[in-house]
């Protein structure tokens, strides 16, 4: 979620965020509340639409990502280490195919 929020420096609504993450609205709202309680994002209700909640990454959120990016990358490297470059490409292609095929069958569609 924090990574997606870096792509929206002015903030994004929970519904749009859920769509981009491929998660349902209630799960996204719950995770956003927890990140807000830790200071990683801030949330506000815009004056133009009182029904909407906009989430925006904070400086603390950017710092958290920067601090944890090396360990996230290391985890990915360890997971994919047994695969050759060609196998990694094939894996990503197969996963993409599955996501496209099943995207409309789940509770929450992922923005493709």
Q: Helix- and strand-based class?
A: mainly alpha
CATH architecture: Orthogonal Bundle
Overall pLDDT metric: 91
What is the overall number of helices? 5
CATH topology, by name, is Arc Repressor Mutant, subunit A
What global shape is seen?
flat
How many strand segments?
Answer: 3
Main β-sheet, spatial strand arrangement: 1-3-2
Biggest sheet details: 3 strands, antiparallel
In whole angstroms, the N-to-C terminal distance is 16 Å
What is the ordering of alpha helices and beta strands?
A: HEHHEEHH
Task: List the keywords.
single chain; 112 residues; mainly alpha; Arc Repressor Mutant, subunit A; three-stranded antiparallel sheet; 5 helices; 59% helix; 9% strand
Could you characterize what this model shows?
With 112 residues, the protein is mainly alpha-helical. The protein has one domain (2-103): Arc Repressor Mutant, subunit A. Helices cover 59% and strands 9% of the residues. The protein is built from five helices and three strands. The protein has helices at 2-6, 14-21, 25-37, 59-80, 85-102; strands at 12-13, 41-44, 54-57. The protein has a three-stranded antiparallel sheet. It is flat and about 50 Å long. 11% of the residues are buried.
């Amino acid at each position: 979620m924090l990574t997606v929020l870096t792509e929206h420096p002015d903030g994004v609504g929970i519904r749009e965020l859920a769509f981009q993450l491929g998660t349902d609205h209630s799960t996204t709202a719950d995770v956003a509340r927890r990140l807000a309680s830790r200071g990683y994002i801030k949330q506000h209700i815009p004056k133009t639409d009182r029904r909407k909640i906009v989430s925006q990454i904070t400086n603390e959120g950017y710092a958290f990502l920067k601090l944890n990016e090396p360990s996230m990358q290391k985890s990915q490297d360890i997971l994919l280490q047994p695969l050759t470059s060609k196998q990694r490409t094939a894996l990503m292609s197969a996963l993409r195919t599955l996501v496209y095929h099943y995207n409309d069958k789940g509770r929450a569609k992922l923005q493709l």
